Amino acid sequence: MTAELTTIDRQGRPITWPVMPFYSEGALAVTTALGMPRKAEHARRNPRVALLFSDATGAGIERPSMILVQGTAVVDDDDLDANRARYRGDTAAKPTGPTEAPRARGHDWYFTRIYIQVQPERVYVWRDGDVGMQPTLYGEHSAAPGASPPAYRGTPRADRRIAEIGSRYETAVLSAIGPEGFPVSIRLPMTADRRGRSIAIDVAPAGVELRPGPVCVTAHDHDPELRWTRNFQVRGDLVADEHGWVVVPQRTIGGFELPPTGSLVRAVANLPKIRRFRRAAARQRRSRRL
């Protein structure tokens, strides 16, 4: 039902958000709303991306493997009307798809989609989701090393929501930039300080080299039928201390969420974000008319 898309920002740091993946003609695709174009902007600037399949909620798989796909992205936003129609068809084909077309009036910023096609370059498979076992690799490693991104550093910024990692969320997705310049993501058991001042990596993964530098920790969950979703991310630095690997938070960002609450609570919580997304969508449309 969902995957975690990692793009690379202007500074070369990883940014990970949950997305709904689609498959077509040998390639993977994800989308982002016209009012939330940052993923597409990142992918256009740096086409090296990663898709991690690590949460099988709603898929009906008893012992799911964890699969990391590193690939090259192509942004498709030439025909937004066609994309909107395509998105309706793609979501309807999902087991969680709506039985009838959703009403887009007032929500054009969301239902008008930018597609990001991902052509796989290499695939890592952790059988049964066991991060302690060496993954099976399909494809070849690149011979050319990538540049190391700059660390965040600065004064650590605690956040009360970070404390949900290790309590509400027993695992979270850790994303970094690998030595070849591609994002690397893996879901790991983590435990946050109760005040949200740090996040400890509880299990060292096999097949992924942890090294100091900027990382993104993404926590999310959803109903098996996607009737509600929650997600947030923590950007910071991965460092080693006497106890092991620790993420030092620098910034905590909440995504667009539909939490398991009433519609009124959802509307009030999301109203500031929706206003911002509508303005962003309007800017996107104006830029396309110039």
Give the helix/strand layout.
Layout: E1 3-8, E2 14-19, E3 22-24, E4 27-33, H1 38-45, E5 48-53, E6 66-76, H2 80-92, H3 108-111, E7 113-126, E8 136-138, E9 171-177, E10 183-192, E11 199-201, E12 213-222, E13 229-241, E14 244-254, H4 263-289
Antiparallel strand pairs: 1-2, 1-5, 3-4, 4-7, 5-6, 6-7, 7-8, 9-10, 9-12, 10-11, 11-14, 12-13, 13-14
Report a brief summary of the structure.
With 290 residues, the chain is an alpha+beta fold. Strands 1, 2, 3, 4, 5, 6, 7 and 8 form an 8-stranded antiparallel β-sheet that branches. The protein has a 6-stranded antiparallel beta barrel with strand order 9-10-11-14-13-12.
Walk me through the structure.
The protein has 290 residues and is an alpha+beta fold. The protein is globular, with a radius of gyration of 19 Å. The model has no long low-confidence stretch (mean pLDDT 92).
